[in-house]
């Protein structure tokens, strides 16, 4: 990740979240509590799935991987955002900025594949219950995770390879609390249209394509249940509502920024708080409160503790 010789910029200034001193202290407190919730909630799910044999099933295997990714996604941005709220000068080095971009897009790619895998898991469980264990066997589950990481790396590096060699010779203020391709390309001392197209074609297509694939899969599941149960969708809708909530929260900011890239406003940085903070803290809440198996596992673990 060495920066090119013609690049004079060795660091970027993150403008972060604006507001009065009191507002920043309030936001720092809120985001500190949210980040604590992200770590405790997701690591608890990870811990339960690993150590409780009753949770060694395809759905919980995928959920544990999602929890791991959520911790990673939040940790790339939220801790720095918290510390920067009280700093007058919010600096990130060139290498630090490029590293942050890489991790955001690698883990974003993995999360998209995991959400597709979880949708496929629910489709199989609801529409093909008798064949569920044959279809969602351990080999398939591991393949989903490996595929996610491969796609994540390819997705990130295919854009990073173009961006890292751009000349940065002047402006270095990023109107956000984190680094990302659209904001950084705007600062390059070169015509950025083709690079904007690369990001839109890659991240935009991936976000939009995955979102519509997931929504279509949920519609297909609901239609199948409707036909089988003479119009009673309540049970299936309750099961799928958690997934749909996560999908909408995760993909809305992605599509806003990457499908129509390089916004002229700073709205996107507030939207991305949903991806980096809100969604990772909601995942354990949604899947725990609506899941009997997780509740039973927690009770079982507490009894063992006593």
Can you put this structure into words, describing what you see?
The chain is mostly helical and 306 residues long. Helices cover 74% and strands 3% of the residues. The protein is built from 10 helices and 3 strands. It has a 3-stranded mixed β-sheet. α3 (94-127) packs antiparallel against α5. Residues 1-6 have low confidence and may be disordered.
C-alpha Rg, in Å? 21 Å
- Helical content stands at over 70%
Major sheet: arrangement of strands? 2-1-3
Strand coverage percent: under 5%
Mean pLDDT: 84
The total of helices stands at 10
Annotation, overall tally of beta strands = 3
- Describe the sheet with the most strands: 3 strands, mixed
- Quote the distance from N terminus to C terminus: 51 Å
Shape: globular
Order of helices and strands: EHHEHHHEHHHHH
Unreliable parts: 1-6
Structural class: mainly alpha
Any key phrases for this structure?
mainly alpha; 3% strand; globular; disordered N terminus; 10 helices; 306 residues
Short description:
By secondary structure, the protein is mostly helical. The chain has helices at residues 21-51, 58-85, 94-127, 132-135, 138-163, 181-185, 193-228, 234-258, 267-289, 292-305; strands at 11-14, 91-93, 173-174.
């Amino acid at each position: 990740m060495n920066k090119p010789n013609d690049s004079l910029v060795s660091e970027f200034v993150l403008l972060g979240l604006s507001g009065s001193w009191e507002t920043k202290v309030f936001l720092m407190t809120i985001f500190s509590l949210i980040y604590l919730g992200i770590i405790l909630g997701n690591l608890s799910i990870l811990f339960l799935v690993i150590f409780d044999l009753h949770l060694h099933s395809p759905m919980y295997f995928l959920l544990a991987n999602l929890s791991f990714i959520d911790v990673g996604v939040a940790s790339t941005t939220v801790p720095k955002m918290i510390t920067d709220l009280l700093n007058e000068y919010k600096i990130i080095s060139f290498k630090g900025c490029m590293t942050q971009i890489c991790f955001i897009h690698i883990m974003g790619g993995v999360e998209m594949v995991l959400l597709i895998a979880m949708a496929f898991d629910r489709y199989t469980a609801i529409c093909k219950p008798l064949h569920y264990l044959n279809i969602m066997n351990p080999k398939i589950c591991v393949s989903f995770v490996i595929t996610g990481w491969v796609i994540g790396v390819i997705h990130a590096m295919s854009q990073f390879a173009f961006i890292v060699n751009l000349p940065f010779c002047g402006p270095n203020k990023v109107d956000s609390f984190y680094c990302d391709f659209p904001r950084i390309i705007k600062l390059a001392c070169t015509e950025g249209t083709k690079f904007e197209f690369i990001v839109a074609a890659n991240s935009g297509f991936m976000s939009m394509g995955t979102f519509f694939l997931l929504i279509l899969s949920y519609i297909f599941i609901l239609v199948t249940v409707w036909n089988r149960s003479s119009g009673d969708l309540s049970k299936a809708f309750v099961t799928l509502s958690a997934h749909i909530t996560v999908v909408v929260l995760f993909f809305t900011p992605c599509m806003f920024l990457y499908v129509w890239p390089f916004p002229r406003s700073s709205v996107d940085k507030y939207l991305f708080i949903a991806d980096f903070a809100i969604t990772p803290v909601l995942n354990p809440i949604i899947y725990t409160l609506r899941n009997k198996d997780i509740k039973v596992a927690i009770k079982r673990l507490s009894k063992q503790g006593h």
